[in-house]
Amino acid sequence: MAPSKKSCVWKFYDKIEGAGNSAKCKLCQKSIKSCGNTTNLIGHIKNVHKAAFRELNNESSKNSNIDSNTINKNTQSVTTVADVQPSTSSADVMELTEEADADKISDSFKDEGNVPVPPAPKRQKSIMSSFEEIYTFSASGNKALKINSALIYMICKDNQPFTIVENEGFRNLIKVIAPHYKLPIFKEKLSNIENLTLTTDMWSETMSMRSFLGITAHFGVGNELLSITLGVYQSNERHTSEHIAEMLLKTCTE
């Protein structure tokens, strides 16, 4: 038989005789271990039977409207506890306390959309996984290549200058969202180059009749040949050697 002083949750359970602290759910016939309290019983109703859990919350709310002075007297006097329930044994007092705690737990879960979820314990990364993450942000890493592609798309789509990667605010943004990613700043690469070659490309758009001048730097790092676009300028001047020399000097000065 269930305890003489029943929690609201016992309306959904039958005590299993001879099975210790176990009860059978009336809704799904599943056996649940009560472990001497109603926490597991409430948890099963909450996780499996949502409608029944809402009904349980409503009944718990009604039963929780007890005068606080009466509760204080009940905890101070065994005689007063006897007025609340027939038995005055320590087990009965413990059962009453557990039921009150269970009601408080039930009240805290009234809003199913805002059920508090305890944060998952943080696990320290292994050395191998840390190195793998750092590698993905290296020059040839998968994440670095994706960020480079997104950065190029942003510059072209929003008509941003290549020097945007040198802006302090932009560099701080990248540092926050991807600390291991190193921005491809061409000035830093060129600072350690002893020799390089500059080439110019000139072309016109037939539809808009606009002319452009592009300047590219070529240099070697070890056995690798690299090229960096230093600038692309709209040119309204004739493509004379004097004009090209002027644009080359302007680019190198910048």
UniProtKB/TrEMBL annotation:
Assigned keywords, A-Z: Metal-binding, Nucleus, Transcription, Transcription regulation, Zinc, Zinc-finger
PROSITE patterns per UniProt: ZF_BED
GO molecular function, a single term: DNA binding
SMART domains on file: ZnF_BED (SM00614)
Domain of life: Eukaryota
Subcellular location: Nucleus
Gene Ontology CC: one annotated term: nucleus
InterPro entries linked to this entry: RNaseH-like_sf, Znf_BED, ZnF_BED_domain_contain, Znf_C2H2_sf
SUPFAM superfamilies for this protein: beta-beta-alpha zinc fingers, Hermes dimerisation domain, Ribonuclease H-like
Domain BED-type: 4-56
Primary location class: nucleus
GO biological process, one term: post-embryonic development
Pfam families to which the protein is assigned, alphabetical: zf-BED
Protein name: BED-type domain-containing protein
Organism the protein comes from: Ignelater luminosus
